[in-house]
Automatic annotation (TrEMBL), chain A:
Name the record gives this protein: Dynactin subunit 4
Biased composition annotated in UniProt, kind: Polar residues: 633-643
Lineage: Eukaryota, Fungi, Dikarya, Ascomycota, Pezizomycotina
The organism of origin for this protein: Aspergillus ellipticus CBS 707.79
Subcellular location, record wording: Cytoplasm, Cytoskeleton, Microtubule organizing center, Centrosome; Cytoplasm, Cytoskeleton, Stress fiber; Cytoplasm, Myofibril
Chain spans, region Disordered: 13-61, 203-229, 413-436, 573-647
UniProtKB/TrEMBL annotation, chain B:
Basic and acidic residues bias spans: 480-494, 542-561
Family designation: Belongs to the actin family.
Organism from which the protein derives: Aspergillus ellipticus CBS 707.79
Feature: compositional bias, Polar residues: 20-33, 291-304, 449-462
Region (Disordered): 1-51, 291-315, 439-497, 538-571
Protein name per UniProt: Actin-like ATPase domain-containing protein
Pfam families the UniProt entry points to: Actin
Stored InterPro entries: Actin, ATPase_NBD
Biased composition (Low complexity): 40-51
Length: 698, 571
């Protein structure tokens, strides 16, 4: 939608297969059909969900629509694959800033961030540069002073938070040392916890449990100063150590619920004793030895709670937040002094002010290979090196499905000037080019839909579209030629040798010759798109002065075919009130897929109108007697006003393609000559064509 | 209320030698083999009892679900790797880069349409607890995308290879839970998913075993009493962040239409993101209640006593009231600023969270203000549990970040206790009777019962007051308690802090789950992939009591046999 008009999206067919819910499956077997109100006939198989018109405006559609270039194709399943129906495996990790690869063993320990000098600005996310403060040249050697990280975009630098670096290298380790040790910062921690935090401490489990007195002394000093604000990291580690100690202290008792799952049974000698006596302590023996075993050890020690700050307990002072309140209101803080939600998202949770923000190391990125979720075949495999942008395997969908492009069929300026204004006054006099950002309602627009085949087999395509687009703003859509062939993506020379004049086609749709006869009345409506830059690419030679005819393709090339779509944009709420539009709006929610040649769908509209009205009246609950839509635009209920993006004209088109595949062996001779071992393939999917935005005024 | 509020052993006053011995108590008396399984990466050496831990070499991944945010990260880390939202920007189509077009000066929605508050916030929610208008398929889509992007952008690990731990609210509609699990199991190959509840996780992350968890969340404020890691009671209220944001939106809407032109006052025309930004930056709450703000007179005398003590500290916040702060103008953010008195920014908090101006009798059951909720939750707990929980009050959730709100709630609870004691009985007749009794007693010296609630109320204020109250408390001696203490003499058990209102800070549910998982404690609800795919949620066994695990049921911690799986509290 934000893409420039016109655009095309393709809906991955996986959207039609809902997440299998095992319990629901069972339930549905018991009670066969929970009758869906949308489906009047309960005897229909569940598969008829496929038959429903794809609604590009439904909230779920956003999750299944993809630009065609983002889709993959699995050659084994013969199916389009979107990011939802693939699985991914990481090939390598690298920093997008310095392009250095990080070995997989280091990724986690570095917190998924670059361990080198790459940092992002905490206030604007631009990359930070390492700059020196002083550059004194004494003699031949230049003496470079302390270093800072500075942002070239917002002029933030680490000086703002009072940090300078001694060396220009290894900034991340320098920074982490500083932020852990500085007492000024709010996220301070005592030195002992820095030691606890070091990765080595996890290995020295014996030292943890029997700490030498000299080491623990400073740690136990901390309770004297009651409110050392511990860094959350340090608190977490303190808590972890505390729990470990408690568990090891209490786990010797089997009754303790927490001790059960710890493999505690084998870790302490006492427990070992118990296990060894498992077999000896049968009832006979125990009676023999009296109650020696029966008298258990003393009460199992119960895990206690953390009691001191060194164990991770934190009791905030009652007036801790008064200072924050005053600081927020203070003159030197203001809106810009407070960190925004975005800035806070990757900072420590208690950061509130901009001054507390720390530079963020750049998040690593990954190269991932992708596999089909159902058959596990590799679809994409990039090269290992981060610097390389090449792929070893890449099965993108566009080499299998036709690439749709849409462009308006503009009456060219020459054509309009040539045509006498009196004959076709309605259309020609207003605009020469169609402004897709403000389509005028109820005025027919003709669009050229080009499908370009990238396969080496000719493809037969059937398009279908609902005659009226779903949603409140109902636009009428007609595909003038819904069934056509696209040539194979053969060698370019083939076309050249065949001659550029008239590409041969063996379809039902008669090939349009480039010198189509034109009548004066139709010229304006269907003049060539001489102004469109793309016209030269697919248009061919003499494309002006041509009429869009029903049942005929517009133009055809070596591996592409263009057909004409005729669209009558509907009116918006708040636009023009028209009786017919209102009737269309009240069409039932189940627009049947109208396949093929329904050029004149007004008949069906009037037919369905009568019964749909009665249906709708019972449905329209909230609005009561008020007509379903307030077209004046003054509705007090915001639901009835124009929703965001409701004015975008999007056409769901069902594409069904058939082709004879040669099992991808010899592609050159496959054109039009199906041999015995060909396989008939079929692929069907929904496509959404974004035409433009409907304007408010006529 | 337990009488054993002997606060002599309040943390800080401990002799050094004692606390040293304390840490020593971590090492047991017998020589002890270090426990391998506590090392982070060496679990293959450990002979753990669970079979899954052999293949569960990789660190589990923990996701905490809220109604708006998803926190994700690895076990053993102190903070989640990322916090992901699911607003309208996140649910756009692939390739729709409209969100990036937003420039600093002026979002293109110069004339934002007015929306109802429900729609205004509804677009930003992942789910609601009421499934009536929910489209489960849409939620599945959102969850799938959130998970995929979290893995690809932040976790940077292959999805589905390691165990998954989900931290969920303790009440989840089954269809929601089912679609969540089905999505995860069918989309990726997670070997197992463990479910943990929010409140006990917050308790674990605070380092205590029992606490009262006040979760000022998005849709609801939930107050949960947790005793020995078990949820004992919980009270809910709709006075939470959602309505707070809606009210802030209305406030900003009113400010942008300076002429008070918004007749209805219901619809919101300001940008949600801007409003949330304002709310997170500037909303605040007065830690002390001014006496005039109390709606009814009966509370008057209660707050009066607190006035004189609070007056001195109130000075700071009182001066702040006159300050003027400038916010980006809601009508044209980025260009102009509007000046707003700082005191105005506390109005939504007062109005929404503390129900200012609404008499108690008009409050519905589901819209009690948090202080009342805390009081009611404490009241519904057994007295012993209450005494333990009231001195371990944990605030979590987005609302707990509003500066001053924690202290305010504690103060209001204190005044409620002072006013009513621990009795649910209210009314004029009761009051008369009490007064008659009191007049009878006037001849006698004041009973400790009368003074006691007072000093519990005063106690968090200053340590000097507390010490005076301790002297009175020490008169009451519990022989049983003393005996226990005598028996446990060798174990240097310090009498636990109880009976006073005290706040304990927690690292949050996510950190609790991370802590728990890194200690290799299994959750009670551990759903194996194969078993779930066979029967779905219906496969969970319900008759857990027969297995004898009933006491553990609500703690979310698991012991023993896992041939069948259960949903425990969620079942």
């Amino acid at each position: 939608m934000s893409r420039p008009f016109p655009y095309a999206y393709i809906s991955c067919p996986c959207a039609n297969t809902p997440v299998p819910d095992p319990s629901k499956k069972r339930r549905s077997r018991e009670s066969p059909q929970k009758s869906n109100p949308d489906q009047p006939k309960p005897l229909l198989p569940i598969d008829d969900e496929d038959e429903q018109t794809f609604d590009p405006r439904s909230p779920r559609a956003n999750f299944s629509l993809y630009p065609p270039e983002q889709l993959l194709y699995c050659e084994d399943c013969h199916q389009i694959k979107c990011p939802r129906c693939i699985t991914e495996e990481i090939v390598c990790w690298y920093c997008p800033n310095c392009l250095f690869e990080t070995p997989s063993s280091m990724v986690r320990s570095e917190g998924n961030r670059c361990a080198r000098n790459c940092f992002n600005c905490p206030s604007c996310t631009a990359p930070l540069a390492v700059n020196t403060l002083e550059n004194v040249v004494t003699g031949g050697t230049s003496q470079q002073g302390p270093w800072v990280l500075s942002c070239g975009y917002c002029m933030w630098s680490t000086l703002d938070i009072g940090i300078k670096f001694d060396k220009p290298t290894n900034i991340r380790t320098q920074l982490s040392k500083m932020t852990e040790a500085t007492p000024v910062r709010s996220r301070q921690m005592s030195r002992t916890f820095g030691e606890l935090k070091s990765p080595l401490s996890t290995y020295s489990s014996i030292d943890e449990q029997f700490p030498p007195p000299g080491e623990t002394k400073p740690a136990e000093d901390s309770p004297d100063q009651p409110n050392i604000p511990l860094n959350p990291d340090a608190r977490f580690n303190a808590l972890k150590n505390f729990y470990k100690n408690q568990i090891s202290a209490t786990s010797s008792s089997p009754t303790d619920p927490l001790g059960m799952d710890f493999g505690s049974g084998f870790s302490s000698p006492g427990a070992l004793n118990r296990i060894m006596s498992l077999y000896t302590s049968s009832s006979r023996l125990s009676s023999l030895y009296g109650g020696a075993n029966k008298k258990p050890k003393t009460r199992p020690p119960v895990m206690r709670e953390a009691l001191t700050a060194s164990e991770g307990l934190k009791v905030p002072a009652p007036d801790a937040e008064d200072a924050v309140i005053q600081r927020i209101a203070g003159p030197d803080c203001g809106w810009d002094g407070l960190a925004s939600l975005e800035q806070r998202s990757f900072q420590s949770p208690d950061v509130r002010f901009v001054e507390d923000l720390l530079p963020l190391p750049v998040l690593l990125r990954t190269k991932r290979s992708k596999r089909c979720k159902s058959c596990k075949h590799i679809l994409v495999k990039p090269e290992l090196k981060p610097q390389s942008t090449r792929f070893r395997i890449r099965l993108i969908a566009l080499s299998y499905i036709p690439l749709p492009t849409l462009r308006p069929l503009n009456p060219s300026p020459h054509a309009t000037s040539a045509v006498p204004a009196g004959s076709t006054a309605t259309t020609t006099t207003t605009t020469t080019t169609t402004n897709l950002d403000a389509l005028s309602p109820l005025r027919p627009v003709q669009l050229l839909l080009t499908l370009k085949n990238h396969m080496f087999d000719p493809v037969r395509v059937t398009l279908a579209t609902p005659s009226v687009t779903p949603g409140r703003v109902a636009s009428k859509v007609t595909i003038l030629c819904p069934q056509f062939d696209i040539g194979a993506n053969s060698d370019v020379w083939d076309e050249a040798l065949q001659g550029a004049a008239a590409p041969t086609a063996s379809t039902t749709s008669t090939s349009t010759s480039t010198t189509a006869t034109t009548t004066a009345a139709a010229t304006a409506a269907a003049a060539a798109a001489a102004t469109d830059p793309r016209g030269s690419r697919s248009g061919g030679l003499g494309m002006y002065e041509k009429v869009a005819e029903a049942g005929k393709v517009w133009d055809k090339g070596r591996n592409w075919t263009t057909v004409v779509l005729e669209v009558v944009p509907g009116t918006l709420p708040g636009g023009v009130r028209r009786q017919q539009q209102q009737q269309q709006l009240q069409k039932p929610k189940k627009p049947s897929v109208v396949r093929g040649f329904d050029l004149d769908n007004t008949n069906t509209n009037t037919n369905t109108k009568s019964d749909s009205d009665s249906d709708n009246d019972s449905d329209s609950d909230s609005s009561g007697d008020v007509p379903a839509l307030d077209w004046s635009g003054q509705a007090s209920d915001p639901r009835q006003q124009l929703q965001p993006d409701e004015d975008v004209l999007e056409i769901p088109v069902f594409v069904r393609m058939e082709w004879d595949s040669e099992n991808q062996i010899d592609n050159e001779h496959a054109v039009g000559r199906p041999s015995a071992d060909t396989v008939k393939r079929e692929l069907a999917y929904w496509m959404v064509l974004g035409v433009g935005r409907i304007g408010r005024v006529l | 209320m337990t009488s054993a509020s002997s606060t002599s052993a309040f943390d800080d006053r401990r002799p050094l030698s004692m606390s040293f011995r304390h840490s020593q108590s971590g090492g047991p008396s017998s020589p002890h083999t270090p426990q391998h399984h506590l090392r982070s990466n060496n679990s293959s050496f450990a002979s753990t009892s669970s079979s899954t831990s052999f293949r569960g070499e990789e660190d589990a991944i923990i996701f905490e679900f809220g109604s708006r945010w998803l926190r994700a990260g690895f076990e053993g880390e102190s903070a989640p790797m990322c916090v992901v939202g699911c607003g309208p920007e996140e649910s756009r189509r692939v390739g729709d880069y409209r969100g990036w077009l937003k420039t600093n000066n002026g979002i293109d929605t110069s004339h934002p349409a007015s929306v109802t508050p429900e729609d205004w916030t509804g677009a930003y929610e992942l789910w609601k607890m009421s499934l009536r208008d929910m489209h489960l398929g849409l939620i599945e889509d959102k969850i799938e995308r959130m998970f995929r992007e979290t893995y690809n952008k932040y976790l940077l690990t292959d999805a589905g290879t390691s165990r998954l731990v989900l931290v969920l609210p303790s009440i989840m509609p089954h269809p929601l839970l089912s679609s969540l699990l089905s999505t995860l199991f069918s989309r990726w190959r997670f070997p197992s998913i463990t479910l943990l509840t929010t409140a006990p996780m917050a308790v674990i992350a605070a380092g205590v075993r029992s606490a009262l968890v006040v979760d000022i969340g998005w849709a609801e404020t939930v107050v949960t009493g947790v005793y020995e890691y078990r949820e004992m009671a919980s009270k809910r209220s709709t006075r939470a962040m959602k309505s707070l944001l809606q009210d802030t939106g209305r406030l900003l809407t009113r400010l942008s239409h300076d002429s008070e032109a918004s007749q209805s006052g219901e619809e919101i025309t300001v940008n949600f993101d801007l409003c949330e930004e304002v709310a997170s930056r500037f909303l605040w709450c007065q830690p002390k209640v001014a006496s005039k703000s109390s709606p009814d007179q009966s509370q008057q005398q209660a707050t009066e006593s607190q006035e004189d003590s609070g007056e001195t500290t109130d000075q700071g916040t009182a001066s702040v009231l006159d300050e003027i702060v400038s916010l980006p103008s809601p009508s044209a953010p980025g260009n102009t600023y509007i000046d707003v008195p700082y005191s105005k920014l506390t109005e939504p908090v007062e109005k929404v969270l503390f129900a200012q101006g609404v008499p108690d009798c008009e409050l519905d059951d589901e819209e009690k203000p948090p202080p009342l909720l805390v009081y009611n939750a404490l009241l519904s707990l057994p007295p012993d549990v209450r005494g333990t929980c009231m001195s371990r009050i944990i605030f979590i959730g987005g609302g707990s970040n509003i500066p001053g709100i924690r202290q305010r709630i504690l103060n209001e609870v204190a005044s409620l206790v002072q006013q009513h004691g621990w009795s649910p009985v209210r009314g004029k007749v009761i009051e008369q009777q009490r007064q008659r009794l009191q007049s009878l007693r006037l001849s006698q010296p004041p009973t400790p019962a009368a003074t006691q609630p007072e000093d519990t109320a005063e106690s968090p204020r200053s340590p000097t007051e507390r010490s005076t109250s301790e002297i009175q408390d020490d008169e009451e001696v519990d022989p049983v308690e003393q005996k226990i203490r005598r028996n446990n003499k060798d174990k240097d058990t310090r009498p636990p802090v109880q009976g006073i209102l005290r706040e304990v800070e927690s690292l949050g549910p996510w950190a609790g789950a991370s802590l728990l998982t890194s200690l290799k404690i299994r959750g009670l609800v551990e759903i194996e992939r194969e078993k779930y795919l066979q029967h779905g949620l219906a496969g969970a066994s319900r008759d857990l009591e027969t297995h004898g695990h009933a006491p553990d049921r609500r703690s979310g911690l698991r012991a023993g046999d896992r041939s069948s799986w259960t949903l425990a509290g969620w079942g």
